[in-house]
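Usage

Read records sequentially. Each one opens with the input sequence:
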Amino acid sequence: MGYGYVVALIILVIVVVFISLTIKIVPQQRVGVVERLGKFHRLLNPGLNILIPVIDHVRVYHDLRIQQANVPPQTVITKDNVQVEIDTIIFYQVVGPDQATYGISDYVYGVRNISTATMRQIIGKMELDETLSGREKISLEIRVALDEATEKWGVRIERVEVIDIQPPRDIQEAMDKQMKAERSKRAIVLEAEAAKQDMILRAEGDKQSKILKAEGDKEARIREAEGLGQAQELEAIGQAKAILAVAQAEKNRIELIREAGLDENVLAYRSFEALTEISKGPANKVFIPSNAVEILGSLGAIGEIFKSKK
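and closes with the structure output:
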């Protein structure tokens, strides 16, 4: 009874081991390299796979997703003999699992070494300022060098990123001081430009104000002159009308005198009478020219005629 139980248990274990060696389930985005009698046979694709126990053997599984490899910080020397520490990261993907298995023993280690060697060559041709501002150039050249080498390894380089470039501490401090000086200089320049712009705007405003004031004074003088001209014109028209009215009245008076039958002699007599009335005053003296005596003699006769008519 105990012996039969042990035999059944052994058979069960053999079956389980046989099944485990025969059936292989591969997850998505993974692939296995199968060797048959020590030689590459085929790849195990994602899903259920059947192997021949003992004869077939899975050498290694590869992850087909994009992987990243951190390259340890490297101290390199620039063209102007300055030591800088550069930290990079590489993104890669296995595209040929069989080549990645048999083309190199450790492709990750190989990628790191090629990246380091290429970085030293690139930085050795660049000065410090160019190195600090040339991250894209460094990344591109490292990627080109890695692509040439990893093509035979079944590995594709997706991206190379230079994470950090650290110059020596004393140079970093000098750069910080230079940066502060540049910022102060820019601030002073901007302040001067702002003051200049403010002065220009003020001058423009003052200019426009004076122009507007001059325009206003000019308009006021023009309107004043127009008003004065209109007033003089109206005054002249009024005077002309007054003169016309006086002339018309005088004309009417003369017409009335003529209609009354009075001639020039009568008018002269009336004037003489007026002079007589004026001379009656104790303080009034009337001087008559000598050539007017004859006229006055005739005026006496006219007076008598005028009285008789009354």
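Summary fields computed downstream for this record:
- The longest strand covers residues 83-94.
- Confidence is low (pLDDT under 50) at residues 299-303, 305-310.
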